[in-house]
IS21 family transposase (Ponticoccus alexandrii), 509 residues
Amino acid sequence: MDILSVIRRWALRDKLPIREISRRTGLSRNTIRRYLRAGIVEPKFKAPSRPSKLDPYAEKLSGWLLSEQRKSRKERRTAKQMHADLVQLGFDGSYERVSAFVRAWKSDRQRAQNTTDRGTFVPLVFKPGEAFQFDWSEDYAIIGGERTKLQVAHIKLSHSRAFLVRAYLLQTHEMLFDAHWHAFRVFEGVPGRGIYDNMRTAVDRVGVGKKRDVNARFMAMTSHYVFEPGFCNPAAGWEKGQVEKNVRDARSRMWQVMPTFSDLDALNRWLEERCKALWAETTHGALPGSIADVWEAEKSSLMPLPTAFDGYVEQRKRVSPTCLITFDRNCYSVPASFANQPVSLHIYPERLVIVAEGHVVCEHQRIIERSHRQPGRVIYDWHHYLAVVQRKPGALRNGAPFIEMPEAFRQLQDKLLRKPGGDREMVEILSLVLHHDEQVVLCAVNMALQAGVPTKTHVLNLLHRLVDGTPTDQPDVTPPSRLVLTKEPEANVARYDGLRTSGGKRHAS
């Protein structure tokens, strides 16, 4: 570079002859003429094209490298392994030639990705009611005085950019279905297409290109709401960039300014109100007006909202001899008539429904425990064990399910179990809830306890009066003074014997 600069200065500025420049530099006159004639400012070396032993195998090696890029890092072959495989195919070149080819191929591919793939994007435009985008994120909130990790569903309309954020404790199928229902309810309609990444709750297997094995329950939901699901390419989150940006913006606009909440329902109510407030506060950007204004215009393009999808996940369970089924480390009771039998468990976000023989057997509130350090809980319903204690009344005394009975039943049990046969008498009183309203039975038990007569006979008498509508609190009758007896009758059963005999004759046996 320095010699070329000197040659150009001597020839063009100092007007030295080529012979003198050649003498001073030691270069040939033809070389100096070539530099000056071509107007070369910077010397360049042009590598000659030489044939290589790798040329017949270049296409094969490029195909290997492309297939290896689709695998995880732990499964990819090294350049040395590829060289050994090429040797098996007849290649007799060196490993250095193969490694140089691999480096050049990776460099070209990275350059292409930075210019025509990941580094360059095409702006997207969506028609009203055309599509929505969905994504999950992880965030934290103070619920019930504890910092709780949450799985947050983000749903955003692609045209109006109206969005909904809803929090759950788990990222499972039933939570996914529930998030869609609440989003369509808030949007007041259903768009024509949904854009997702390849989440496990929707895609069972990712195939070549756009081929996907979609989960059957997810397809049932899309069929119910009548929209077409579309899935991004693997590791290509920018294909649903609107909702990806919404995940980032929500942290500063919602989670960092969020108050504390008593339960998850209160949090979701606050999130829904906060999202609608942000619609009115945020300008659309591409269209005039706010997000709320564009959403009002888009509503007419959405499909009318159908009924909610019955978004449960079904599992087959077998009831244990203790009338329990297990789900997520917790146990739930089932009526004793289904002990040791298979049942179907329908899992919803907030409840569990047990179904057998085509009918709903019972229902429990779902318990979700995020900490695995604590032992699982057992959720009893004492009504489910009445059929057992009717055959085994002695189990009532220490039966774990009956600890959760109402306080009136517990007080009556303490009094009845002190006398012989009290356990069976208590079981017969508890069994009244199978035929009468439980609150009416509780009222009769409370009245018997207040009257100081805690017996089955008195409870039955009070219960029949309550069922028939007969007043149970009759006032005391005070007779007038004229009707007061001057001589109280005596209880003397011997007088009946006098009626049986008269004049020494016996009239009745």
